[in-house]
Design goal:
The chain has helices spanning 7-16, 52-65, 117-126, 142-148, 190-194, 210-227, 247-253, 282-300; strands at 25-30, 42-49, 69-72, 78-80, 85-92, 99-101, 108-112, 129-130, 151-152, 155-156, 161-167, 174-178, 197-204, 206-207, 260-261, 264-266, 274-276, 309-311. It is of the alpha+beta class and 315 residues long. The protein folds into 3 domains: 7-92, Uridine Diphospho-n-acetylenolpyruvylglucosamine Reductase, domain 2; 96-227, Uridine Diphospho-n-acetylenolpyruvylglucosamine Reductase, domain 3; 247-311, Uridine Diphospho-n-acetylenolpyruvylglucosamine Reductase, domain 1. The protein has a 5-stranded antiparallel β-sheet, with helices on one face. A 4-stranded mixed β-sheet has the order 1-2-5-3, covered by helices on one side. β11 (161-167) and β12 (174-178) form a beta hairpin. α1 runs antiparallel to α2. The longest helix is centred in the last third of the chain and has 19 residues, at 282-300.
């Protein structure tokens, strides 16, 4: 560990241990175990909360202590510094992995923030509910998908989200907002600006033949496997789509396909992905990203913005 744990974090962790079972409060936890990049140094503490009360308690403790903390979903859009994270990582488990159809309207489904998009898609497909096929292959959780309005193949979370239940950053209150109040935009929602925490989302789907849904999911998965480097650790699309272009095309046109620093590389299969080709560090990934941004800017005048969230590191 190359950072000093502050008194605020140490004190908060000690108090959290009185509220959360010891096996769900991990100290000096490597974040490489919790990110799809398989990269990242240790977090000072990694806490798994199983219900709203536990989450509220942890947020209250962290806020009162002034302890640095961050919520992590499935870790599929995170790049954590090699030095790690000097605060408390909070992950949702237990009750937050729930999913259930509305008893009065079976096209409405309430999904917990920790539920994976893949398992959500499988649940909906089995029940003949369409409209979520676009998310079937996205390696994230419902909470993270709402946070960034995740999307693929022409669909986005804003298309299916009716409402979202949230908790205030200090854990003091819960509220429910309509999808129209979530300010969904390209890879963005008001959650990112407000600090509110997604607890669950209410989705509206359409009835369809399960076999037809399965066929569409299979078609999208085949496209993903053919075009994306799914056999390498990554954080998905590394850069956001710029106005008037596509990040992958700009990177490719700049001659950067296959560009490598250490174990990090611009995928030869899809230039929009920086992959962990083996033993990559966060520093390697950042160097590749910086170089790609600079070369693309010089060749096109467009400065690419990261889609991957940079934790305790920056470009």
């Amino acid at each position: 560990m190359t950072y000093r744990i502050t008194d605020a974090v140490a004190g908060a962790v000690e108090e959290i241990r009185h509220s959360i079972p010891a096996d769900r409060v991990l100290g000096n936890e490597p974040m490489s175990r919790h990110t799809s990049f398989r990269i990242g140094g240790p977090a000072a503490a990694f806490v798994i909360v199983d219900n709203n009360k536990e989450l509220a308690d942890v947020l209250r403790i962290c806020t009162a202590a002034g302890a640095e903390h961050l919520l992590i979903g499935n870790g599929s859009n995170f790049l954590v510094a090699d030095e790690g994270y000097p605060g408390i990582m909070i992950r949702l488990g237990g009750d937050f992995d729930s999913i259930a159809q509305d008893p009065d309207d079976d096209t409405l489904v309430r999904v917990g923030a920790a539920r994976l998009l893949s398992s959500t898609s499988a649940f909906l497909t089995e029940r003949g509910l369409a409209g979520f096929e676009f998310a079937s292959g996205i390696p994230g959780s419902i909470g993270g998908a709402v946070f960034m309005n995740a999307g693929a193949y022409g669909g986005e979370m804003k298309d299916v989200v009716i409402s979202v239940r949230l908790m205030s950053p200090d854990g003091s209150e819960m509220l429910e907002l309509a999808g129209s109040d979530m300010e969904f935009g390209y890879r963005h929602s008001m959650v990112e600006d407000s600090g509110l925490i997604v607890l669950e989302a209410l989705l509206r789907l359409q009835k369809d033949d399960p076999e037809a849904i399965i066929a569409r999911v299979a078609e999208l998965q085949a496209k993903r496997n053919a075009k994306q480097p799914v056999n390498f650790p990554s954080a998905g699309s590394t850069f956001k789509r710029p106005v008037g272009g596509f990040a992958a095309a700009l990177i490719d046109q700049a001659g950067l396909r296959g560009y490598r620093v250490g174990g990090a590389m611009v995928s030869e299969k899809h230039a929009g992905f920086v992959i962990n080709a083996g033993g990559a560090t966060a520093a390697d990934v950042l160097d590749v990203m910086r170089h790609a941004r600079q070369v693309v800017f010089e060749s096109s005048g467009i400065m690419l913005e990261p889609e991957v969230r940079l934790i305790n590191c920056s470009l």
